[in-house]
Amino acid sequence: MSLEIVGLLIFILLLAIALLLFVNLNRYRQQQTKKMMLDTYELILDQVDAYIYLKDTQCKYVYANQLTLDYFGVTLEKLKGTSDSDYFPANVVDILHVNDTKVLNSQSKLSDDIIVDTPASLIVYHEVKQPLYNHKGTLIGLIGISTDITAAYHLRSKLERLANTDPLTGLFNRRSFTSFCEHEFFRATRYFQPFSLMIIDIDLFKKVNDTYGHLVGDEVIKRVANICNEHVREADVLARIGGEEFAILLPDTDIDSAYVLAERLREAQQQYEEQKTPSITISIGVATLRSQDKAFLEIFKRADKALYSSKNVGRNSVNVA
Ligand SMILES: Nc1nc2c(ncn2[C@@H]2O[C@H](COP(=O)(O)OP(=O)(O)OP(=O)(O)O)[C@@H](O)[C@H]2O)c(=O)[nH]1
């Protein structure tokens, strides 16, 4: 072999080595860039104030960001292959599993509020879950993002309570009472069950205010609210529906039983007031659901008419319409 050929072969070999090095270096650079990008994404996900996680199609965890890992008290390695039953109480696991299955089966997005109520705490999460696909478009699991909405939940509950209750007595107000009654009207008519209604009014209350002042009047209102409260059963709904006017919704109660309850309440109030100054009495109107009633308002109007009759016969009495 001539010297030129050997030289040429060495040159080709060196060129091939250089090319190989170049390709490998490029591949290495690409891998490094990819790793840096992944590290950056992980860093970002770990700093997001939300629980982010991936589950496979068997609902087993494959990834979770740092906030989730801290909450579960595990490392990423330990998390892999575990499921919700390792971290949540049984009732919560059931709900989470239903949601996961829905997302995987329907392959569509789902959002829900989850209440995790344990003896130690009550935490509310808003979770959004959606199916996860690989590059080929095959379903490989789901991605979930949960945010802690406990503070908003408490605020919403408080606002709801404020909107539905009377501040003086803590009883339901007229608005919420009406909605309970309308619901009960449809339930009772649908299942052919009885229900009755009592409207209770403090007698000559204007005189109490005029003689003793509004603060004493308010105390009297609270007294009546307390006596009513002591006489209602668990299923009954007691509300303050006006200034000195109360109402009790009595599910599964016919007119005779409602009358007996109303008489008992009137007597109890009278007895309680014997030693009080001012000493008040109450009048009550009672009505019950009739087959021809088309709306709750018809029962309410009859109970109001019965109350009017109680006032007309000299107050401190119960009447039925
Ligand atoms: N203290 C107090 N008084 C109230 C409140 N809401 C309404 N009232 C008063 O309740 C009184 C109701 O008076 P009326 O409707 O004339 O009835 P009444 O004096 O009870 O007479 P009868 O119902 O016919 O027995 C009015 O003086 C109202 O100002 C309240 O929250 N606190």
Q: Your description of this structure?
A:
With 321 residues, the chain is of the alpha+beta class. The chain folds into two domains: 11-153, Beta-Lactamase (2-Layer Sandwich); 165-320, Reverse transcriptase/Diguanylate cyclase domain (Alpha-Beta Plaits). 52% of the residues lie in helices and 21% in strands. The strands form two sheets. Strands 2-1-5-4-3 form a five-stranded antiparallel beta sheet, sandwiched between helices. It has a five-stranded mixed beta sheet with strand order 7-8-6-9-10, with helices on both faces. Helix 7 packs across helix 8 (214-231) and helix 8 packs across helix 9. The protein is rod-shaped. The structure holds guanosine-5'-triphosphate (GTP). Guanosine-5'-triphosphate binds at residues 168, 201-207, 209, 214, 217-218, 221, 243-244, 311, 315. The chain crosses the membrane at residues 6-25. It catalyses: 2 GTP = 3',3'-c-di-GMP + 2 diphosphate. Residues 37-100 form the PAS domain. Its EC number is 2.7.7.65. InterPro entries: Diguanylate_Cyclase, GGDEF_dom, Nucleotide_cyclase, PAS, PAS-like_dom_sf, PAS_4, Rev_trsase/Diguanyl_cyclase.
